[in-house]
Amino acid sequence: MEMPVTGMLNEGLFSDMRAINILPDELYVTDGIHIDMDHLKKGEVNMAITFDGGVILGADSRTTTGAYIANRVTDKLTRVSDTIWCCRSGSAADTQAVADIVSYHLGMYATMEGKQPTVGVAAGLFQEICYANKEQLSAGIIIAGHHPSHGGSVYSIPLGGSLHRQSYAIGGSGSTYIYGYCDSYWKENMSEAEGIKFVKGALREAIKWDGSSGGVIRMVVLTDKGAKRLLFLPDQGYEGPGDM
């Protein structure tokens, strides 16, 4: 079934995303089987930057429900097209659903137009959905990608659904702790190695200070050569293994 891009999201979608809300009151429990999806949040930190040659996305991997760590190795970097990825923060159910809808429409765009969509097109789709449903969604999304004609670009959509193009963007609960770090160490036109070092350093600081952030550090490097995934482990001081 085709999902609308504008207007309110299909009510059945929210029934699936928050199925616990349609169950009897006695099932509103966290018993290992039934999870209150309204409290399943990805308390986390994620970011994306531009560098000389493309973009880098990075995120931690901790998903929490209240004070409970529901998943310590969540992959919060989501591919929405061949050249465009996003970082998701907020409600896991909400952001996964929005990313799936956008990925579907970008696939249709590529098929009908015979070319890959730009990052701006993807960001516009995300923004339309997030803004039109801002009262129902808990979603903060960073979109980043590389296009042959436009190079690398980063867009941020915070809670509320506004859209901002930036050289770099940070999001999630852990971002509160790294604004100073990013302001101090950010510079334009970094090399790929410098960009990876910058992103890893910022995420390490957020994980250090934010109790809702943790786990491994995942990155995606997008260039004209495609996507390269990186993984850094806490038991190795986030120094490796690197390539996935």
Account of the 3D structure:
There is one protein chain. The protein has helices at 11-17, 92-113, 119-132, 179-185, 192-209; strands at residues 40-41, 46-51, 54-59, 63-65, 68-71, 77-79, 84-90, 139-147, 151-157, 164-166, 168-171, 217-223, 226-232, 241-243. It is an alpha+beta fold and 244 residues long. Helix content is 28%, strand content 29%. The strands form three sheets. It has a six-stranded antiparallel sheet, with helices on one face. It has a five-stranded antiparallel sheet with strand order 6-7-8-9-10, with helices on one face. A hairpin with a 4-residue loop joins strand 6 (77-79) and strand 7 (84-90). Residues 1-30 have low confidence and may be disordered. The radius of gyration is 18 Å and the shape is globular.
